[in-house]
Amino acid sequence: MTDTASPTPERRGGTPIGHRAAARLDRLPPSRWHRRLTLVVGIGAFFDLYEIFLGGVLAAVLAAQWHLGPTAKSWVIAAGFLGMFVGANVLSVLADRFGRRRMFLVNLAGYALFSLLSAGAPDLSWLLPLRFLAGLWLGAELVLVDTYLAEFLPRAVRGRYLAWAYTVGFVGVPVAALLGARLVAAHRLLGIEGWRWLLVAGALGAAFLQLMRRQLPESPRWLLVQGRGAEAERIVAGLEERVARESGGSLPSVPETETVPERKVPLGAMFRGCYRRRTVMWWLFQVLQTVGYYGFGSLAPVVLTAKGHTVTESLLYAALSFCGYPIGSALSIPLIDRIERRTLIIASALGIAGCGLAFGFAAATWAVVTFGVLLTVCSNVFSNAFHVYQTEIFPTGLRSSAIGIAYSLSRLTSVVLPFVALNVLSDLGPAAVFTGSAGLMLLLCLNVALLGPRTTGRSLERI
């Protein structure tokens, strides 16, 4: 078992181990180990989402402090997303080549460094490139979260546990806005401007998480694709032993029907056979979902100031609205393995469209906050459903690359979005911004309904 290059595969029960590893992982009962893994990986999503929605907070704060015009405010939001576009393309492809664990160990280290440097930026000419570099290293974080957890979690709880990971992560969204409102109101803490502390907090938290991630094992499914069967066997056997010990009983038998071999898949396979239809569907999806989903989170503080609220009030109302993100994420947990993913995506996207329209037209404070919360609740049922869905529609050898390339399109759209949306906001007002967003969400629903495959309850290999 030490010679992984041997032409004769290791065998267990007369079947090549590599052919049964996926089934062995899928049939495991959920355990404390699975929950700890979900928590550690989910905390990583916290920092990605914290950073995403921090752009809108910084734009609202620095517009007043640095006297920024619409174009400069747009760049404050767009710089991080532009870096994420590059990072999602590069690091996700490297994760298919060099491993999920290795990329996990380098991406947050780079983000922590450049986020800390961003906190010391003296002006916009320094802040924008540093925000770009911080975003670059963070670009593949959610891709890695989705890919890594999907390849470890048993299929019966894959959707539910991924939803738990994002529930942990989405606590970062209201935290960013609440911290922003508090620090902006205080102006300075220990002689340092409040917005700089937001960047320091993200950097220090990411550095601490990096230490926790050093204990993560590599994905056995990825190891098998690389022909490293002995390493995959050691990880799977160790996990089986741990789960059996924690559950205090014997493990379920491995179904003989689940012996689909893992294999390398060239990147060009994205555009062949059944994967071509899925790739087209998912590229369209990622462009369209950005406007309805990330558009609200990144633009909400700016939209609220356009409605006549002060910067501090806008950040407070945005923070209250953002509380719907973890609530919606938690709400998705009992739904995500009971309702077909495709159906849940469409239903929640319609909710985003309707609540976004109501938010855009709302004038009273209670209506702004109420519809903001409802919009973000729908947003995270939607988000969790699609994050699970995208891990299921591509094979292991292609999963990180295919998801990352498609995901990068959402980041590229996020770069363009502020320039378009803030001009529409300036010329036509908030109602026009959210009317356009609702129309694009309807197109998204049509795209998924016509081109998306069914996936709920099936093994990754069988899909």
TrEMBL record:
Q: Does the keyword Membrane apply?
A: yes
Pfam families assigned: Sugar_tr (PF00083)
Span of domain Major facilitator superfamily (MFS) profile: 37-456
Q: Where is the signal peptide?
A: none
Q: What is its main location?
A: membrane
Transmembrane ranges, per UniProt, are 37-63, 75-95, 104-122, 128-149, 161-183, 195-212, 280-303, 315-336, 343-362, 368-389, 401-425, 431-452
Q: Name one GO molecular function term.
A: transmembrane transporter activity
Which Gene3D superfamilies did the record assign? MFS general substrate transporter like domains
Q: Name one GO cellular component term.
A: plasma membrane
Indicate what this protein is called per its UniProt record. Answer: MFS transporter
Recite the UniProt keywords alphabetically: Membrane, Transmembrane, Transmembrane helix, Transport
Membrane topology recorded in Swiss-Prot or TrEMBL: Multi-pass membrane protein
Q: Which InterPro entries match?
A: MFS_dom, MFS_sugar_transport-like, MFS_trans_sf, Sugar_transporter_CS
Compartment(s) where it occurs, according to its Swiss-Prot or TrEMBL record: Cell membrane
